[in-house]
Write a structure and sequence with these properties.
The complex is a heterotrimer of chains A (177), B (760) and C (289).
Chain A (H helix, E strand, L loop, with lengths): L2 H7 L8 E7 L2 E7 L5 H8 L18 E4 L2 E4 L5 H4 L3 E3 L7 H10 L8 H14 L5 H7 L11 H25 L1
Parallel strand pairs in A: 1-5
Antiparallel strand pairs in A: 1-2, 3-4, 3-5
Helix pairs in contact in A: 4-7
Chain B lengths: L2 H8 L6 H5 L15 E7 L5 E7 L1 H5 L3 E5 L24 E2 L5 E7 L2 H10 L1 E6 L6 H5 L12 E9 L2 H6 L3 E9 L11 E6 L5 E5 L4 H12 L6 E4 L16 H11 L3 E4 L2 H7 L6 E9 L5 E13 L5 H10 L9 E10 L13 H19 L3 H8 L18 H15 L9 E14 L8 E8 L5 E4 L9 H13 L6 E4 L17 H28 L6 E4 L2 E4 L10 E2 H7 L7 E7 L13 E14 L5 E11 L6 H20 L5 E2 L2 E2 L21 E4 L21 H13 L10 H11 L9
Parallel strand pairs in B: 1-12, 10-11, 14-15, 18-19, 25-28
Antiparallel strand pairs in B: 1-5, 2-4, 2-6, 3-5, 7-15, 8-13, 9-10, 9-12, 13-14, 16-24, 17-18, 17-23, 20-21, 21-22, 24-25, 26-27
Helix pairs in contact in B: 1-17, 7-8, 10-11, 11-18, 14-15, 17-18
Chain C lengths: L1 H5 L2 E3 L4 H11 L3 E4 L3 H8 L7 E4 L9 E6 L2 E7 L4 H5 L2 H6 L1 H8 L4 H4 L4 H6 L6 H6 L3 E6 L2 E6 H9 L8 E8 L5 E8 L7 E11 L5 E10 L2 E5 L1 H7 L6 H14 L10 H17 L4
Parallel strand pairs in C: 1-3, 2-3
Antiparallel strand pairs in C: 4-5, 5-8, 6-7, 6-8, 9-10, 10-11, 11-12
Helix pairs in contact in C: 11-12, 12-13
The chains are: A alpha+beta (177), B alpha+beta (760), C alpha+beta (289).
Amino acid sequence: MDSKKIIHEQSLPLNESIPITLQVNGEEKQLQAMPAARLIDLLRNDLELTGTKRSCDIGRCGACSVIMNDSLVNACLVMAYQADHASITTIEGDGLSFIQDAFLKEGGFQCGYCTPGMIIAAKALLDAVPIPTEKQIREGLSGNLCRCTGYSSIIRAVQRAAAMKLVIDRCSAGGNV
Amino acid sequence: MRLLERAKEMGRIRPDGTAKVTGALKYMTDLSFPDMLHGKILRSAHPHARILSICTERAKQLSGVKAVATYHDVPGLNGYGIVFPDQPVLCEDRVRCVGDAIAAVAAETEEIAERALNLIEVMYEPLPVIDSPEKALSPAAPQLHPNGNILHRASYEKGDVKKGFASCSAIIEETYELPRQMHAYMETEGGVVVPECDGTITVYAGTQHGYKDRFQLSRILDIPEASIRVVSSPMGGSFGGKDELNIQPYAALLALMTKCPVRIHQTRRESVRAGIKRHPMKITMKTGADENGKIIAHEVHILADTGAYATLGPAVLDFAVEHAVGPYVVPNVSTEGLSVYTNNGVAGEFRGFGGNQVTFALEGQIDRLAEKLQMDPLDLRRRNVRKEHDLGPVGQRIAPTNGAVQVLEEICKKAAGLQGKKPDVWKKTGTGISITMHGGGLGYGRLDPAGGRLSFGTDGKIEAAFGFEECGQGLLAVIETLIVEEFACSPEDIKITIGDTALVPSSGSSTASRATSMVWQALQRMKEPFRQQLLACAARIGRIEADKLQLGPGGIWKRDEMNASVCYLSYSQLAKGMAEEERLVVNTQFDFPTSPDPFIGGHYLYAFSAVLAQVEVDELTGRVKVTCLDQAVAAGPVVSPLGYLGQIEGGGIMALGYTLMEEALIHAGCYVTNNFDSYLIPTIYDVPEQMEVEAIEELCQDDPYGPRGVGEIGTIAVAPAIAKAIHDATGHWVRRLPVSPEEILQAVSAKEMKAWIRKK
Amino acid sequence: MLSEMLSPAVWFPKSLEEAWGMKQRLGSHACFIAAGTLLQTEWEKGRIDPGHLISLERIDEMKGVSKDVVSGRSVVRIGALTTLGSLLSNSLMLQHSPLVTEAVRGIAAPAVRSRATIGGNVASGIGDAIPALLAADALVSTFGGNTRLTKPLWQWIQENYNSQITPSDIVTQIELPESGLANYFYRKIGRREAFIPSVVTVAGCCMRKEDGTITHIRLAVGGGETPPQRLRFSERLLQGVSIHDAVLESVYSNVLEEFQPVSDAFASTYYRKQIAANVIASELAKFAW
């Protein structure tokens, strides 16, 4: 019986640790956690994926942004029971290299602490809007604080990533013809 | 060329870049070790109180708790502070701010440690809270420290201001109020202290000066410095905020008590409460000029709220006093500064270091004076600005520089090219320009050593080692770029070592815009001996004359065969061929250049900036939106274009926050803004549509000092430029930061009745 | 704080009745939770310390967005569990109520919106969607033990929040009548450009005849800790007239009187009144005849 089923059929409360199944960066992970434990702690402590950063604990900085079931979320605001059976993409995941490359070339980071969250937010944005306007970039990244760069280089990086994605997609489309 | 284009042309990627964008980089707060415990620190419940008793029994009995430390457990000096150690590590009988630590707990989990804190019983007798410098100065105020409530006085006198004012035809007098800004680095303070088998400890925690942490920890723990290794880079931002000790003493005490590694990573709320902030200052300036716009007299009073402890408060005040006259030549100056203890948290070092506050006041004076004289404010600046060989702001000899004129003229060009935008309905626009100069290094009379080491490893790598730290500013890129330029090698040939007292030479602090400058100067000293020795070895191995060889990518090249497909002797071949006694190590030790004239803290090398701000003021709400924030910076040659650009852009937005929204509010000694939901810093939406950076690289002839640091300069002149732009748009002079939309709205409303329809 | 955060027991009722029963049994130690984005910030502040969380996320009748026709007028029903993010990408919503869509776009940031629910925003009593919903004449459905009630949102807010007591009822659904061709405006003013707690939030909805006479007007304000309210007196001033200088002047003064905001460390009551009055008058000025 999988853990999802257990939770669903539970008539008693969950007040001790429960099995949680996560699909993290394409890999299935089984772990035990308190139901209200936070996803950020599961990722950082249990799974040792420390690329997801902790900074404000209240969803006001975006340093712990991850993609959960195709949506951008703050891992500090998601509890273990809410993440059960979810598919999670963190900065350690695949499909981010064109954005990472653009951040490198434009210098869209300094201390790098907000960068994983920023890149994940950029990924969520570009998945939804492949060629964003500057306004859409601002909206897409408005929940991610950066104290070092002043954001200009981040805007340039996302613009570059979008352009690169276009080229990549065209090439791969061309290759299929 | 605009910096952005240059950066693109150069196309170099930071050495730490890939690890940062992939999330692979381990910050000190990401580390974990076998058997690691988790630490938590109990902070004072009151901003000012006597401690009657501390009982830790219940906490110690909690299952999973491994140690509880109080003042009893501090083996050495129960105090720290960079200038002098007046801040208790763990308070014994008195607390002076809500950041004061009373106990520290190590437990199996963070949750248990947190629970244990709640079980520590502290009895307090609250004392009157000194919540302003004025209160601190009143004769009846309780004394916060043995020497009273005044931390530091500093002053500068030149000429006779009284006489000077008598001959002025226009005088401006105004008091400016500057807020308590929070560094708001994204990574809060944290790290791990590991007790090693040999009785030593390794401290993995970010700081801006590893050796200084080692010194302070040695004093607290009463163990030799040699028994402490500090690993201090990389950091998730610092901006001055991690220069002073933070969690290190507690993690170290707990690690020594439990003989286990102890990690402490403060929550944002804890960080706000315990962390240092920028000094709030009240600055009164009286400035007079004759009818030709020549500034004759300038009188300044600075009152700084330094909070409960000293840290670098004295030096911040010295800096403000020094820069009170900025880049202007004024015959009669009287500046007096006072830094005062209160129960308002702790103020300390922060990017700009007192320059931000005093420049807001100074440039405000210049603009007000121009209005009174009915003169173009740029003209007024031109008439008074320092020239190449003028003395420094406290009458000291400085390295000749024409930076002030250069940035002023460059920003004038920018202003001329700025597109005047027709404002939307209910919006008013305006522009403003400010300039500033900012000293680098710690200043006259302070220990300010620098140094570095170049060696050639057995693996054939050119190893550069410095005691500087990577806070995010791009130090690694600076080192790499300079070495690649000097030796024409490739980035792959280099190994850079920083941030670890076990491995690096002492180079002084990564503060005061000094690291880039000191790396460059160190390399100037080391490059020729290193090059010559390396070529000599290559010559011996290849049985060829050394002057036929030169360094290049991948190895040693023959001068006349630079077009060859491979080098003459690769670095790894060279390393293999070198005898043990030929191992090449070049060291240098020197001091940051200072003025020969003895003004304590006075600087010798300065950087300059001019800012052009354009704002849009909403007449309905009083809110200000910055639409353009251009900067021209004169700080010598650009080492790393992307890094330079990032410092100025990032500094500009940090200063925009300081101007428009940031204030760590304290009411009666307690923080009101405890996290990012109330302490607001700029988001990507606050970034102006236009932000261009011009770097002026030209130095005076024969200037031997190379690049000046740009870590701070981009933050200094932003606030006054925005304030002037607001005045340009509304006619209202702002004298208090952050700009209050409420105040702007009252000012705008008072000037004209709203005629709703006619605006249509 | 953190320790308490991690230890509450979580309950998973599958129906409203079950949820209600649990809350009755567990009393004040329990609280309802959907996504919990607001609740988590309250925990971090140490303001609440629930021993039990009753998750509403498995109650099917609180889910989904659908269109219906009620007495000839189309309405959109939004289940309380609908996330703000999904409302933004819902084409039905954009067509039906661009005002509410715009308001939702101004709430927090994408990562929060993809979790936070419309029900939570409304149930908080101070959410920034509320002024827009008030201007759009939204109805709210609630469940309180044996009773299912649907009433105008303004009325529910007035009954529940003016007393400063958090309601015990579960918000189950929001119902939005079609706004037709009404003109609308929405503005949220905070201390920076975006991702802000609101200082003042203003929403308005207006329909006019060809001669400019106002046939329908709604004005609503909120912001900060202030419970959002309809400005009924100001609305009355506008109903049936066409907009000209004098009307604007009187609406302006009237808003100053009628809006009763709460002050905090960042903005005074008077400032909030002023910007609400300014924004409303300037927006109405666009409809001047």
